[in-house]
Design brief:
Chain A: Belongs to the bacterial solute-binding protein 2 family. Chain A: InterPro entries: Peripla_BP_I, SBP_2_dom. Chain A: Its main location: other. Chain A: Keywords: Signal. Chain A: It comes from Nocardioides conyzicola. The complex is a heterodimer. Chain A is α/β, with parallel strands linked by helices. Chain A has eleven helices and twelve strands. The longest helix of chain A is centred in the first third of the chain and has 24 residues. Chain A is elongated. By secondary structure, chain B is an all-alpha fold. Chain B has twelve helices and four strands, in the order H-H-H-H-H-E-E-E-H-H-H-H-E-H-H-H. In chain B, strands 1-4 form a two-stranded antiparallel sheet. In chain B, strands 2-3 form a two-stranded antiparallel sheet. In chain B, strand 2 and strand 3 form a beta hairpin. In chain B, helix 2 packs parallel to helix 6, helix 2 crosses helix 7 and helix 2 crosses helix 10. Chain B is globular and about 60 Å long. Chain B starts with 28 loop residues before the first helix and ends with a helix. Classes of the chains: A alpha/beta, B mainly alpha. The interface between A and B is large, with 44 and 41 residues.
Chain lengths: 339, 331
């Protein structure tokens, strides 16, 4: 009896040790390179894809491109996408228990994803985070292909400063309608935005409102901000995504404020969409920035192929972003019109 | 349908909606609450810079329009005893997609198809609730999933754009107010007229007050509820059309918080969630009151989170008071 117990305890300890060894092998090796791919190539590998749901146009475009890009590689993708933050975390936990070769995650709630990432590490399942950066507490436990969100914020500020200077203004008030404030994506963009706005102190940010990536709420809040400050009290506006910037344009027009041109409101967006491109062409939106789903989907698919082929890609890769204005619209219109 | 305070629930009252109670005046807790809220708002409003301006009044009305139109429709449904619909956002989104994707057929045709789409989707739910007595909350939650899922499936999640920008006429303003505000006023007046002056409207109060008694009295309960839901569908469709025009494109998440915002406006307007009592004009007042409070908080620098919190507390207090009034009235 005692012998049986001893054997069981030894087996348990062995399993624990094996698990810990596998955990140590997965993900980063601390050298700044992703390791753990066995170098045999992507053929036959399984990916648990905990992405954004197709309810989001950005998510839909990403999912379609990502899946298509990996189609010929022989990777099997288990779709666990969702636009509900709670469901997504459940799906992440489920993915860990399935023990795939790789979990690819685009998380809605960075903080809530910490525990599943730790579980994945313990289970020896490597995780690739895409789009938003990971929580700092698990930064070294995952691989990442992330959008350059600080740069996107910088581009928005550059658009505003350039637009106001082009109008010959030596002062001006700016309103900002941001995405969900608690998200790192939003915080990073605001950090970049504030950094560049600080270089032009003549232009002052007078309002920052969290409109939760909601176009309808953005329009409603913009209507009230134009009433609060009047057309003369707001010279520029930043809607963190094009679908938030365009309701600002409509709200301004309905409030009787001039938009664009030599002396109208300077509006800039982000996450470029076809509607934003059309609005730039129409002279209403001054500019936007990329973070388009197609580019990041292709880059993350390429990262996965390099990882499975044993090419040890860097632990974290930034997706290059572009500023979009009327000056380079033709070059980027296609890239921005996929969602 | 207004009942006297001492009237048992099982009896169908004959007093007209809004008629004074037969046993003399007693203070209405809901009325007292709304009076207190309005009185409390006055000093805050006076001391808030730029609140009492024409521009701000216009902004408040503009911010009320989309939710208000849907809320007016929801009033009829709630009066007819069907509680609430949880599928308004999804329906408005589908209508917005239909409206934009059919712009190449011409504005009138696109408008007609969109309104028919909203009416059809919602009236079907009303018929199931009216004739087969399905639980409206359960049914509309299921319908919301089905409608949203279908929209995602058919659109592939991609944004829907219009081939033509003729819809932009719906974003225009008349006397400084967006067209949607005038439509809201017309819809509210029509709904109030239907409720007070037409047979189906009066029957909605009777059915909402006591469905069993209404059926026993020979009223066409299923048809009455179906008409209320069809009108609601029309209102949702109008909202969807304006949402599409305002945003110039439609995604699956376009409807946002429309469902809950509309329910909040109806409840703050004092319509009983159990049915049989309410008014479209009071719903309009509820929608405006919520917008005024949100606007005040925004102007005074409070976050959108604070606005949502205050709205939630206000709805909760009103619902409790309406419930207390109902139970006291039926004791």
């Amino acid at each position: 009896m005692i012998r049986t117990r001893t054997l069981r305890a030894a087996a348990l300890a062995g399993a624990l040790g094996l698990t810990l060894s596998l955990a140590a092998c997965g993900g980063s090796d601390g050298s700044g390179k992703a390791s753990g791919g066995d170098g045999s190539g992507p053929e036959g590998k399984t990916i648990a894809f905990v992405g954004y749901g197709n309810e989001s146009p950005w998510g839909a475009a990403y999912n379609k491109t990502f899946t298509a890009a990996l189609k010929d590689s022989g990777v099997k993708i288990n779709d666990l996408t969702s636009m509900d933050a709670g469901t997504q975390i459940q799906n992440f936990n489920q993915a860990v228990s399935q023990k795939p070769d790789l979990i690819v995650a685009l998380v809605l709630d960075t903080q809530a994803a910490v525990v599943p990432i730790q579980k994945a590490k313990q289970a020896g399942v490597p995780v690739l985070l895409v789009d938003g950066r990971p929580d700092p507490s698990v930064e070294k436990d995952v691989m990442a292909v992330v959008s350059d969100n600080p740069k996107l914020g910088e581009y928005a500020a550059q658009n505003i400063i350039e637009g106001l200077k082009a109008q010959g203004r030596d002062s001006g008030n700016v309103i900002v309608l941001m995405g969900t404030k608690s998200m790192l994506v939003t915080q990073d963009r605001m950090e970049g935005f504030d950094k560049v706005m600080a270089t032009a102190p003549e232009y002052k940010v007078i309002e920052e409102q969290d409109t939760n990536w909601d176009p309808t709420l953005s329009g409603k809040v913009a209507q009230q901000l134009f009433a609060k400050h009047g057309c003369d009290g707001v010279q520029a506006a930043y809607g963190m995504a094009d679908y938030m910037a365009l309701p600002i344009v409509q709200a301004a027009k309905q409030a009787g404020c001039k938009v664009g041109g030599d002396d109208g409101l300077v509006v800039t967006g982000g996450n470029c969409f076809k509607a934003g491109i059309d609005s730039i062409r129409a002279g209403e939106l001054y500019g936007t920035a990329t973070e388009d789903p197609i580019t990041i989907a292709k880059q993350s698919a390429d990262y996965i192929e390099r990882y499975f082929s044993g090419k040890n890609p860097p632990q974290s890769e930034l997706v290059p972003e572009e500023r979009v204005t009327a000056a380079n619209l033709d070059e980027l219109a296609d890239q921005c019109s996929q969602a | 349908m207004t009942t006297t305070d001492d009237e048992p629930r099982g009896q169908v009252a004959v007093a007209m909606p809004g008629a004074p109670a037969a046993r003399g005046w007693r203070p209405d807790p809901l009325g007292v609450l709304l009076l207190v809220v309005v009185v409390a708002l006055v000093p805050v409003a006076v001391t808030t810079d730029r609140f009492l301006t024409l521009d701000n009044a216009r902004a408040i009305l503009a911010a009320t329009a989309f939710v208000g139109i849907t809320a007016v429709g929801a009033t009829l449904v709630m009066i007819a005893g069907s509680a609430v619909s949880m599928a308004a956002s999804q329906t408005a989104t589908v209508v917005a997609m239909v409206f934009l994707s059919t712009q190449d057929l011409g504005l009138s045709v696109a408008l007609l198809l969109s309104l028919l789409c909203g009416i059809a989707i919602t009236a079907v739910q009303g018929v199931v609730i009216g004739y087969w007595e399905a639980n409206p909350i359960v049914l509309t939650i299921a319908a919301g999933f089905a409608i949203g899922g279908t929209a995602t499936w058919l659109s592939g999640g991609t944004t829907v754009y219009a081939e033509d920008d003729a819809y932009d006429v719906l974003n225009s303003t008349v006397l400084g107010l967006p067209v949607a505000v005038y439509v809201l006023l017309v819809v509210a007046l029509v709904a109030e007229w239907v409720l007070r002056r037409t047979t189906p409207g009066r029957q909605m109060f009777l059915v909402g007050e006591n469905r069993g008694a209404a059926r026993a009295a020979g009223l066409p309960v299923g048809r009455v509820i179906g008409v209320a839901w069809a009108f609601f569908g029309l209102c949702i469709a109008i909202t969807g059309v304006f949402l599409a025009s305002f945003n110039t494109s439609a995604t699956v998440s376009l409807g946002g918080t429309l469902t809950l915002d509309a329910i909040a406006a109806v409840l703050v307007g004092g319509t009983a969630i159990t049915g049989g009592r309410g008014s479209a004009l009071r719903t309009l007042g509820g929608a405006v009151l919520i917008s005024v409070i949100a606007n005040l908080l925004l102007i005074r620098g409070y976050s959108t989170g604070a606005q949502i919190l205050v709205k939630g507390v206000l709805v909760l207090v009103v619902v409790v008071l309406v419930h207390l009034r109902s139970t006291r009235g039926h004791r």
